[in-house]
Write a structure and sequence with these properties.
This protein has helices at 6-16, 28-45, 58-63, 66-69, 73-78, 87-100, 104-128, 133-145, 150-154, 159-181, 187-200, 207-217, 224-229, 234-269, 281-300, 317-338, 342-355, 379-395, 403-424, 428-438, 444-455, 459-472, 476-493, 500-516, 521-533, 537-550, 555-567, 571-584, 589-601, 605-618, 623-636, 639-653; strands at 309-310, 367-369. It has 654 residues and is mostly helical.
Length: 654
């Protein structure tokens, strides 16, 4: 055999070399620009770190949530919040409270960091779906800084969105990567991510549908076409396709179904599902179509963004016109499907399958729209814009000279709007003033703003806004709020002898609340407390007892009734109420003191000593507790301990 010459050897060596593509992390041209986008996104949202909690569910989810404040793991995973079962979100709230207390800046920071995680996974998914680096970066940046993200990122309560989104997008990334590379789907990794996502927010139930949409875009064979080519009937082909999907994704659909049923059950139990008699089922279908149209417009032009979009009543003409636009869009997508424009169909389907469960066809909230609902659905449209960028720069080379500038200008405008919208969420006052500026005909923003003013001692402002709320709609809750404000003013003026005029104004408002909603225990209990403050003890006991009958878990009811019983020297009844109060709020040293005092009056000195000692364990620097125990020791005939406590009390009073 003749030897190969040098040139032949060289060519052979060249042919034998195999080019191994760089992984994502090895390719700096991929991850360095992505890092820059993450920095930009962080800078855009960084003003929210200075924002406060708001009285729009932050109070219920965090500030007043005993499971969060006490890190009650059992309660976190067995109880709902406002009808929603989001145990992982509540757990993270509890963890944040454990680590940072109630510092809102840290809660906001966690939300931003999780949003960055979601933004990064969007970029990775865009690359897998076939976008060029620049197009994927465009989609990533749009997802990161779009104004419709503000509610999900800046509202502390909506940790739900960025938390569920992190696991949801991580799962979708792993699935898309497996499909793209035609490898086995890593179910053992995806299923735990899916479960965590479901536990963060029920919206994650759409993941298996998103998987199917990704399959379609990547040209995956569902088995239908193959069956048709083998001569099977259409019905047989459909059955074959369904069986194949069930085999691959059955576990995901079962998990979605189970969590969906659980969510509906809890919403129904909490009476959060609204069966609003104002609207028929047909009306709600129209509202759903109208909502989709509004979301599409807001994607391009994010206008009139509000934390609350109240149901329009009566329905405006736009709602009745929306089916024509909606059906036109459906027809357009169908035509795109027929012509095999997969990117358009993918964008529309991804949006639809992720928004369909959030359309308020069955009312589950106080508004028919919510910016936060678009957090995941808009990804389909971000992909479409990225694809459009690729198409124009590839097939219309002339656009390369101006398209980047147009994109930069549009992104700059969106960033400006986003920063401005973040300021809306600065605190409760700015939030509700913003809503009032858009929807001044509805009661809720006036009532919530009044609540904020009352809690911050701005009583006259609170009275003014409660009054404005009442002009728009009379409800027991608003009369209760204004009544509490009048009572606060009365107590503040003279705690020992509150102003009868202000107290009577409070009683009048409570009475209107009771008449509007007789079963609302809090209003009746508050009226009882107001009556007791001006010596109407018999009427006060009637209100307090009836209120506690309606709501045996109302701690303030037991507290106020115990005070009335003590004033009437009904010490046994007072002790019973002290005990019931402590079952609800065990960390209350003043109530142990009050119970100890009542037991001393009855001569139950040893039990009284135990209560005073418990109170001192909570607060060892309270002289009144030592004085109380001194009296109990005196009753027991132990002068040494009695004198020691008396002297300790005197020292603390100096």
């Amino acid at each position: 055999m003749a030897k190969k010459n040098k040139k032949e050897k060289k060519n052979t060596i060249k042919k034998s070399k195999k080019i191994v593509p760089l992984s994502f992390w090895q390719n700096r041209s991929l991850w360095l620009p992505a890092l820059a986008v993450l920095v930009i996104t962080f800078l855009v949202f960084s003003p929210s770190i200075g924002n406060d909690f708001v009285n729009w569910d932050d109070d219920v989810n965090i500030l007043e949530n005993a499971n969060v404040l006490e890190f009650n793991i059992k309660g976190i995973f067995t109880e709902s919040v406002i009808g929603g079962y989001n145990p992982l979100t509540t757990f993270v709230f509890a963890l944040e409270h454990k680590l940072f207390g109630l510092d809102p800046s840290m809660f906001h920071l966690v939300n931003i960091l999780l949003h960055l995680v979601c933004t990064f996974f969007v970029y990775r998914i865009m690359l897998l779906l076939g976008l060029s680096r620049n197009a994927a970066l465009l989609a990533m940046l749009l997802f990161g800084i779009h104004p419709m993200r503000v509610e999900s990122v800046t509202w502390i309560t909506e940790l739900k969105d960025v938390l569920f989104g992190s696991f949801y997008l991580a799962a979708l990334f792993l699935y898309t990567k497996a499909r793209k590379n035609k490898t086995n789907i890593p179910h053992l990794a995806i299923i735990p991510l899916f479960i965590l996502s479901l536990f963060a927010k029920i919206q994650a139930v759409s993941l298996p549908l998103s998987m199917l949409v990704v399959d379609y875009l990547l040209g995956y064979d569902f088995g239908f076409q193959n069956a048709k080519e083998k001569g099977q009937s259409t019905i047989s082909a459909v059955i074959n396709m369904v069986l194949k999907i069930a085999k691959e994704k059955g576990i995901y659909f079962l998990l979605s179904l189970a969590v969906g049923i659980l969510g509906i059950t809890m919403l129904s139990g909490a009476e959060t599902l609204n069966d609003d008699s104002y609207f028929s089922f047909l009306d709600r279908i129209l509202i759903g179509m109208y909502s989709i149209c509004v979301y599409l417009v807001k994607f391009i032009f994010p206008y009139r963004m509000s934390p609350l979009y109240p149901y329009p009543f009566p329905l405006p003409w736009q709602v009745y016109a929306s089916p024509f636009l909606f059906l036109g869009l459906v027809f357009g997508v169908f035509q795109a499907y027929r012509k095999h424009y997969r990117t358009i169909v993918f964008a529309a389907l991804f949006f639809f399958v992720n928004i369909i469960f959030l359309l308020q066809v069955v009312g589950a909230g106080q508004g028919f729209l919510a910016d936060r609902f678009t957090y995941i659905p808009y990804i389909g449209f971000f992909f479409l814009l990225g694809y459009g960028y690729d198409f124009l720069t590839r097939y219309k080379p002339s656009t390369k000279t101006f398209l980047p500038y147009i994109a930069a200008a549009y992104i700059g405008i969106l960033g400006f709007v986003t920063v401005n919208q973040i300021s809306v969420w600065k605190d409760s006052e700015s939030l509700w003033l913003h809503v009032i500026g858009i929807y001044d005909e509805i009661q809720r923003p006036f009532g919530n703003l009044a609540h904020h003013y009352r809690e911050n001692g701005r009583t006259q402002d609170a009275i003014n806004y409660y009054t404005e709320a009442i002009k728009r709609e009379e409800t027991a809750t608003i009369y209760n709020g204004r009544g509490k404000t009048y009572f606060d003013m009365a107590i503040k003026a003279n705690p020992r002898q509150p102003s009868p005029e202000l107290v009577n104004q409070a009683i009048a408002d409570y009475t209107k609340g009771v008449n509007l909603e007789p079963d609302l225990a809090e209003v009746r209990i508050n009226r009882g407390a107001a009556r007791a403050s001006i010596g109407q003890y018999e009427a006060a006991l009637q209100d307090l007892s009836k209120g506690l009958e309606q709501d045996p878990t109302n701690a303030n009811g037991y507290l106020n009734r115990s005070l009335v019983y003590s004033l009437g020297k009904q010490y046994e009844n007072a002790i019973s109420d002290h005990t019931n109060y402590l079952k609800l709020r065990p960390n209350s040293p003043d109530i142990y003191y009050e119970r100890g005092t009542a037991k001393t009056e009855l001569g139950r000195y040893q039990e009284a000593v135990q209560d005073f000692t418990t109170a001192l364990q909570f607060n060892p620097n309270q002289p009144a507790y030592y004085m109380g125990r001194s009296q109990a020791y005196k009753g027991l005939g132990d002068p040494a301990k009695s004198n020691a406590d008396f002297e300790k009390a005197q020292q603390l009073r100096k």
